[in-house]
Description:
single chain, mainly alpha, Endonuclease III, domain 1, 0% strand, globular
Amino acid sequence: MPDISYCEFANGLPLKNVDRIHHDTVHGFAVHDDNELFGRLILEINQAGLNWTLILKKEAGFRRAYDGFEVGRIALYGDSDRLRLLADAGIVRNRRKIEAIIHNAGVVMALKQKHGSFKAWLDGHHPLELPSWIKLFKTTFRFTGPEIVNEWLMSTGYIEGAHKPGCPVYKRVIASRPMWLMR
Length: 183
Ligand SMILES: [Zn+2]
């Protein structure tokens, strides 16, 4: 990311650019669906050490390879799925990331069983300060370092900061009623 905010960067791009579309329609908007929440975690985990634009370009590939981000199916992945993912050039072929995602899908299924949904578990902890979220994710999931957790929370609306107040998208994000507004 250049030395400007994501808003400035994205707003300077053509309307059909992947970063522009993500900024204008996804980033910071409230997310209500468990699979989508988990899918966004898949993308953030895969971004580690790589460029976010690359991840966005591969998003359709991730969706296809990971069964539309259906947590229940990913949790059941066995060895053949691991091999399939490691061989899929449409995604990031990193064994540690793939293992972490499958493991985390199992964790989310356990959370769903106990709390009704992944979102209910998250909402039950909200609001938390960022260091507490980081600690919670560290003790609950794999491959969820501080940066991944911070980005994921901003992107899904659990913490403030996805858009600058002067950004043209800011008002639409507020209208989606992200969780950070409901303290
Ligand atoms: Zn913005």
